[in-house]
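User: Here's a chain of 275 residues. Predict its fold as tokens.
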Amino acid sequence: MLPADITESVRHALAEDLGSGDLSAALIAPRQELQARIISREAGVLCGQPYVEAVFAQLSADLQVDWQVTEGAEIAPEQVLCTLHGPARALLTGERSALNFLQLLSATATQTRAFVERLQGSSTRLLDTRKTLPGLRLAQKYAVRVGGGHNHRLGLFDGILIKENHLAAIGGIAPAVARARALAPVLTRVEVEVETLEQLDEAVAAGADMVLLDNFSLPALREAVARVARRIPLEASGNISLETVTAVAATGVDYLSVGSITRNVQSLDLSLRYL
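Assistant: Prediction complete.
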């Protein structure tokens, strides 16, 4: 499912780059055409094709993008990803915005895929978080899906996660869950973040739909799984890395969430070259 805000996101990206107009592109003859191609400089997972297409579509209806690989495919260094042909001004104006989207989203999908591959053979699923770049949440969550991960909440509006600060303000797990049940629609999931096994017991007894186990050790995660005995899903979170993700999954938790797949991404090295 493509993000509903692609057109708007691209419009904002172009607006902040163009301002009152592309002074450099104005040096090019209006009717001149160019051909170009986007090339990968390192291995990864390609993501962001709809954004690239939207960038150039908003600049010129005559600009054509022909992809050589599919969205979500693994790519190799020096691989041609697509060819482009059309008005030179539109190509030059949209180059940076198109690459920004493609590099960022490919990096997010690549990092996600790396975690998902470490989970093969287990029933644990990878979730993202709200730790996304401002203004690009739906884009990055789309990239997580392309990489094989799953989305947690899109925002504060589509699920309740009662965290430590909520508990401090309300006065405990039981009253917090009770308020959530009173305020939220029937189908809204109520999840509680806990830091101890005792809090886990409280959350289960209070009727939470799901529990987030924050910074639990591996022995504590195993004990939590044994205590809950699959009555509700358990999510592990907190400093989970590629080095530790397999061991965390082996405890039997249903989900694990990793903020680094959207927060600590280094753009994939891609370049646009004119022919």
